[in-house]
């Protein structure tokens, strides 16, 4: 009996179109089954005149196994790390199909590895090191406890929900982005703590990498004064491509440093300010599964799955953007290559069942069909009690004409 459904959604690059095009029921989904279904859907889309440029998914084990079943066509980068980020489109041999891991999901896995890097034996699954210096969550806790009582503070984004995340907070991308932000990096550097420089560098590089892959709309870069969020065009893409390359180089250097048997840390962190009420609850520490290669080398850096997702997404993003711009797309907002619309679709299915947030197969299919019909027949509601006025209002500085006073006839009393 089927216990899961697999949903394929197509999303436009240069327009706002998004639509669920296929749904499959499965009990235990395998990579081989996913391979057959995916290319069946891509073939149907290509025959309908819809060119498929990229395949976006999260970093689950089935998705990673599905991607590895493809023959890579990595022309510009050597496949020395075994990362498959593109393959020939079987339904359109003149084009490539690029694989991208959901960037918000990657940010959460990066935060989880960072959260697990503690120098307390009871709470640590990782002890991340680079250049002999620690990359640890202890500095985040120390910074929060030091500044939480102050009215004005640089790291204003830190709060109890993102410093001591519970199972609900760990699912929120917002809380991960608040910790791995530029403001926290600057405040951490301003403290002058020994051994904290590498942690600040790690936060800064992750923040820049995420910003380059998270531009939402064409004006957000100017509105928040962050050029990394601006749309990609033919004239402004090279500088941010260099930021992405720098992050890959940082990960490569980190791997080499972690493999060095002499890579140790002699510095000691002052944990006097890290003992808080939340610190004693081990259940609040991230319950991430152990990495596949649970070795001392693996525990000194990010997890293997996280690094593969970062490399695959970053290596695929650059040629994908270049291809789309050369095909005539005027600009590319990086956030179009994520799973947010699909997750919103799933939330609508769960919300449509009232108090039951675990619908069965029949309920899910009926709700998907209803959303498809209502999406085409429904009309956007006009909000508020005002509308557009097509009249042109002319503004001038000339004085207003004086209005002539007209008086009526005086009342005369007759005798």
TrEMBL record:
<dbReference type="Pfam" id="PF21788">
    <property type="entry name" value="TNP-like_GBD"/>
</dbReference>
<feature type="domain" description="Transposable element P transposase-like GTP-binding insertion">
    <location>
        <begin position="105"/>
        <end position="217"/>
    </location>
</feature>
<feature type="domain" description="Transposable element P transposase-like RNase H C-terminal">
    <location>
        <begin position="337"/>
        <end position="362"/>
    </location>
</feature>
<protein>
    <submittedName>
        <fullName>Transposable element P transposase</fullName>
    </submittedName>
</protein>
<dbReference type="InterPro" id="IPR048366">
    <property type="entry name" value="TNP-like_GBD"/>
</dbReference>
<dbReference type="Pfam" id="PF21787">
    <property type="entry name" value="TNP-like_RNaseH_N"/>
</dbReference>
<dbReference type="Pfam" id="PF21789">
    <property type="entry name" value="TNP-like_RNaseH_C"/>
</dbReference>
<dbReference type="InterPro" id="IPR048365">
    <property type="entry name" value="TNP-like_RNaseH_N"/>
</dbReference>
<feature type="domain" description="Transposable element P transposase-like RNase H">
    <location>
        <begin position="2"/>
        <end position="69"/>
    </location>
</feature>
<dbReference type="InterPro" id="IPR048367">
    <property type="entry name" value="TNP-like_RNaseH_C"/>
</dbReference>
